[in-house]
Design brief:
Largest sheet: 8 strands, antiparallel
Structural class: mainly beta
Number of helices: 2
Strand content: 25-35%
Order of helices and strands: HEEEEEEEHEEE
């Protein structure tokens, strides 16, 4: 079984393993993205899944250096290599500061770090703030939304970027 097949299996299993009861299982996929490195190689997948009015992001990455990496939703659905700056800043429709550790934070695009194992794979499941209707309005607006993996860990407090370093992988979220 190649690495991409293993990644797809892990991605499909993540929503089940992260929930405590059958009622907590997401019952609808509302969007997704394929992550790519600057050289065009695939770097993983991201799914937006809903359960009632709650939306969660489920991600699986591969081919990224081991360790923690900042993982954010960015305000523009554009991933122009090599630096992915076309994705703009973090998704921040509520005009908040950056970071879950910032008393004035957090952007909607602030997500936990994704930790990549020595094998080069990592996964993350995170609930997005806001109702399903709000999340859909913010993510699927006229200029879209990108998911970005950063070179370094997010420190969860430094505004506006979390000192997460350069952008090393990017994907554009598309509605399902």
């Amino acid at each position: 079984m190649n690495a991409l097949h293993r990644l797809l299996i892990v991605t499909a299993a993540l929503p089940v393993g992260a929930c405590s009861t059958i009622a907590d299982l997401p019952n609808e996929r509302i969007g997704g993205a394929t992550l790519s490195l600057a050289n065009g190689m695939p770097a993983g997948t991201v799914q937006l899944v809903a359960n009632g009015s709650t939306v969660s992001l489920v991600a699986a990455v591969t081919g990224i250096s081991p360790g923690p990496h900042g993982f954010h939703l960015h305000a523009v659905g554009s991933c122009q290599a090599p630096d992915f700056t076309s994705a703009g800043g973090h998704l921040n429709p509520l005009s908040r500061e950056h970071g879950t550790a910032n008393p004035d934070g957090r952007h909607v695009g602030d997500l936990p770090n994704i930790t990549v194992q020595p094998s080069g794979t990592g996964s993350l499941t995170a609930e997005l703030p806001g109702t399903r209707a709000q999340v859909e309005e913010w993510v699927f607006d006229t200029d879209g939304t990108a998911v970005v993996v950063h070179a370094n860990a997010d420190d969860y407090r430094t505004d506006p970027t979390g000192n997460a370093g350069g952008r090393i992988a990017c994907g554009i979220i598309k509605r399902s």
